[in-house]
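Q: Can I see a sequence and its folded structure?
A: Here is a first one.
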Amino acid sequence: MSVAPVAPPSAWADTRRRATVRLFSRIGTFCLVELQKLRHDRTELVTRAIQPILWLVIFGQTFSRIRAIPTGDVPYLDYLAPGIIAQSALFVAIFYGIQIIWERDAGILTKLLVTPSPRSALVAGKAFAAGVRTISQAIVVLVVAALLGVDLTWNPLKLLAVLVVVVLGAAFFSCLSMTIAGLVLRRDRLMGIGQAITMPLFFASSALYPIAIMPGWLKVLSHANPLTYEVSALRGLLIGTPTNYWLDFGVLLVAAVAGICAAASLLSRLAR
């Protein structure tokens, strides 16, 4: 009896490599498709930048004058600027699930799901497109912060790392939104839940004030909040405050991957 030949290990490695390249290619394709939608409504980039600018200009300058929040040797406006960058990414990404519900209602999602691409590639493409969308807002906040006299770093490598942090944070929160969309299935419900959790996520982080001055129960929530690690990484990169970059980037990366897996697992339920 003949025995089927066994492929050598090098062939297995080559197959895995091609599969990985194909997966990332599909993720990139879905990401580009999402970004193409901005061509139809470029004013979105401008209108979404208004709120973080108001936080920085009004809230930041006011609290800098009254010195109500202890930030050590760091001026409060300098301390706040990285938190506002993270906030702008959160506010964009947390309602991203509304778009996928609209695609479900328009029949687009069903067509995407019958393609040979894995669901994780579709979700990841949308998640990283949300991250790329927030880059424009991060740049606007950086420019406004510089005009207000915030002492930021202009090291190109650190600025590149800032963009990576923003994209990872937005990817997680957009996946959280898509996961909620897969559970509630309706735009009005998702809008209500998004509005209910946005400000608690923001206030239960170190975006506005140090963790050290929080009450004990809020400290626990803050340490479980990925936004805290995003803010910590941005603060360390932009104004040089001490932080554990391995922990910050590790939490954001794990959160983004977990979010992609959770949203992908509920995608078929959303398309029913």
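Q: Show me another, different protein.
A: A second, unrelated one:
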Amino acid sequence: MAKASQDISLSSIRGSRANGKTRNNKESAAKSRPKAGRRSALTEAEIREIFRRFHAESPEPKGELQYVNPYTLLIAVVLSAQATDAGVNKATPALFKIANTPQKMLALGEDKLRDYIKTIGLYRTKAKNVIALSKRLVDEFGGKVPDDRDVLETLPGVGRKTANVVMNIAFGHPTMAVDTHVFRVANRTGLSQGTTPLAVEADLVRVIPPEYALHAHHWLILHGRYVCKARKPECWRCLINDICRYPDKTPAP
């Protein structure tokens, strides 16, 4: 945790209002931009301080899904829809030992794939999608995962959040994958007032300082998963408690 003595004064933070200008989004693959929600409740200086503290606590945050290459990352993220990362991680190590490329996944086949992932929710549908997307990767992309978000979103079982995760982790683009944790943290803190994942994504891409953009979604996801929890946020140990706009902060136990 960052100590209070290391933080810049909140009076100086709150003395500067955000200018509301659209920041450049560095992801070259983006061809369409989601519509932003209302203006952030936080000042530009407050937002910068939030991410300065996240960076100070964890300079190189990592996702928790296990993978060995861009293809297995894509598969792990597809399998994680409406499931936990921990649950996916229990199933995928054995699977990826024998099928870590789309060609090997097609050779394994849908029936055997189901046996490997049957502990994951919606495994039958996910098995169909994994086989279908693997076939497209082989037929259209030489077995490679494309470095293009718009193309990724056309693959079976791949939505915008999954595409953003792959673009960020596999290819180093500063994309913002908005899951339930990011959506909750963004709205509670005042980083966004968006009512849809697309609106929250647009707000975050607009307001997060460029130097923090690459790791921002990891910081927000992990903060939501372990501190800013859905039912009972642990506000007493939150390193941005003094900046956060959430009115119903949980007192220390």
